[in-house]
Amino acid sequence: MRVKKPNSIAILGTGNVGKALAAAFSSFGYKVTFGVRDLENYSAKEWIADHPQISVERVADAVDDSDVVIACFKPEGLNEMVKHMGDLENKVLIDAMNSIMNKRTPFETTTHALEELTNCKNVVKCFNTTGANNMARPTYGRQSLDMFMAGNDSYSKEVARQLAKDIGFTDCYDLGGSEVYVLMEQLAMVWIRLSRSELGRDFGFKLLRR
């Protein structure tokens, strides 16, 4: 499926993943805006001052001005963040979060929660299965890592695949629909567990085929 390339991305979450994705997408020509609840007090203020090509707006304004919204904030703030998001009906909403380590809602995953709590029909889980260091630099020698995704909307998945490939991932493999959101978070846990071993964080997943 060929999709219209989105031009603008709102990133909700100013932690390591949010900053890595913002820098990556911005460097490839996307208009990137951080959506924050408090314009006077947010964690990445100094970092953004060093990246003037990336703008900051209130959450609802950042969402309204963008084609794609990437959620990568702390999962425990999900209910409160949803109240600020505004109208997501015609947006592609990418969930890059994981709740499996810190389950604070009755939902199985953050993606189930976003589907239930927003009016967005174009939800896809992606960019959750590796660390921020790999979002910023997915290339290892002559090869690049692969990304994975899941969701019920084919258009949203094609957008996610395109975005992943644009920032350097070789491919973005479709694992299925909402029935595999839990699997996606478990895959993230595999990476997290290994990253705490002697491997450290400089490794990632690559699918090899004969």
From TrEMBL:
Molecular function GO terms recorded: cupric reductase (NADH) activity; ferric-chelate reductase (NADPH) activity
Cross-referenced Pfam families: F420_oxidored (PF03807)
Signal sequence, start to end: none
InterPro entries attached to this UniProt entry: NAD(P)-bd_dom_sf (IPR036291), P5C_Rdtase_cat_N (IPR028939), STEAP_metalloreductase (IPR051267)
UniProt-listed GO biological process terms: copper ion import
Presence of the UniProt keyword Oxidoreductase in the record: yes
Top-level taxon: Bacteria
Residue span(s) of domain Pyrroline-5-carboxylate reductase catalytic N-terminal: 9-98
Oxidoreductase keyword on record: yes
GO cellular component terms, semicolon-separated: plasma membrane
Entry keywords, A to Z: Oxidoreductase
Name of this protein: NADPH-dependent F420 reductase
Record organism: Phaeocystidibacter luteus
Lineage summary: Bacteria, Pseudomonadati, Bacteroidota, Flavobacteriia, Flavobacteriales
